[in-house]
Amino acid sequence: MGDTWAKLLIPLIPVVVGAGIGFLPTLLLERFRANAALRTRWDVTLHTACAKFAACTRRLVDLSEEATPDLDADQRRTLRQELDREHRTLQELMAEVRLLGSRATQEAARAVVRDAWALRTEALTGVDPRAAEFGAVTPRSRTLDGLLAFYAAVRRQLRVPEAADVIPLNLPLPKAAKP
């Protein structure tokens, strides 16, 4: 009887060993896939939230440039409403960035919100509320510099190659040739 069991088990040994050999790489591959999915599952959502944040900031910068001394009362009221709406939207988008962004991304976004507030205030009042803190650097320059830092932080978090290699938003205008 012992001889019969041995005859039955000997052919099963290669099958069990082969199954074990096949199971180990499959298990490792599935773990690798699961870890990769965990690392990237929020990337699309983060990208979308950050793109909206950057677009809103850019709209705020563009709106602030419309503030000129020659605006009449209705135009100033409309501009104020638009600036207020964009600034509220920027703060809402900041909440999304805080949920998904790394610490560096959150800090860069917070700096943008702070500088955008000063930009909004300057557009409405003509006075930079943080002039004592930043000297001759305008709120517009600070906001655009902050947005550039925000782009770099988001690119690092999204694992973009050469993440810090972001060109300035507004390249200097070429100097006019002297006649």
Description:
The chain is mostly helical and 179 residues long. The protein has 2 domains: 38 residues; 116 residues, Four Helix Bundle (Hemerythrin (Met), subunit A) (Up-down Bundle). 75% of the residues lie in helices and 0% in strands. It has 6 helices and no strands. α2 runs antiparallel to α3 and α4 packs antiparallel against α6. The radius of gyration is 29 Å and the shape is rod-shaped. The model has no long low-confidence stretch (mean pLDDT 85).
Brief synopsis:
The protein is mainly alpha-helical. The protein has helices at residues 2-40, 43-64, 73-100, 103-125, 131-134, 139-157.
How big a fraction of the residues is strand? under 5%
What percent of residues adopt helix (DSSP H or I)?
Answer: over 70%
Low-confidence stretches are none
Morphology call: rod-shaped
The averaged pLDDT comes out at 85
Write the element-wise H/E pattern from the N-terminal end onward: HHHHHH
> Structural class from helices and strands?
mainly alpha
Q: Into how many domains do the coordinates divide?
A: 2
- The number of distinct β-strands equals 0
Q: Report on the biggest sheet.
A: none
Whole-angstrom Rg: 29 Å
Count of alpha and pi helical runs: 6
